[in-house]
Specification:
Strands 1-4-5-6 form a four-stranded mixed beta sheet, covered by helices on one side. The chain is of the alpha+beta class. The chain is built from three helices and six strands, in the order βββαββαβα. The longest helix is centred in the last third of the chain and has 14 residues. Strand 2 and strand 3 form a beta hairpin. The chain has one domain: ANL, C-terminal domain (GMP Synthetase, Chain A, domain 3), CATH 3.30.300. The two termini are about 25 Å apart.
Length: about 120
């Protein structure tokens, strides 16, 4: 997806998938502590930045958590990284915190973050 942020995406703050409320920061903490640049890992397992958003599903009555990740040059989101993220988030938070999807961030995510952070 290269266009603007889709309408069904919610901006990051509190998530409420399946009626379980938690803050996006709870996932960010796990990603930074386990996959941040300061960790001794190969490039495919390092996350430079991330954006956790909710995507409305079931006609807007529920949401699922999507995690966009910025990786080192040339790295791709593979099954190994997805499994590692799921495992760490489940162990350090709960199964409800595990993102439904982990995707490499498309350009609109970078533009959106820059607008939000710039004010």
């Amino acid at each position: 997806m290269v266009g603007p942020c889709p309408d069904e995406w919610l901006t990051p703050t509190n998530r409420n998938p399946g009626g379980i409320r938690f803050g996006s920061a709870e996932i960010y903490q796990v990603l930074e502590s386990c996959f941040g640049e300061s960790q001794e890992r190969e490039d495919e397992m390092i996350i430079l930045d991330s954006l956790v958003v909710g995507q409305l599903i079931e006609g807007g009555s529920d949401e699922r958590v999507i995690c966009f990740v910025k990786l080192p040059e040339g790295a791709a989101v593979g099954d190994r990284l997805r499994r590692a993220i799921a495992s760490e988030v489940r162990a350090k938070r709960s199964a409800r915190h595990v993102p439904a999807e982990v995707r490499k961030n498309p350009p609109w995510v970078q533009r959106h973050c820059m607008r939000v952070w710039a004010g």
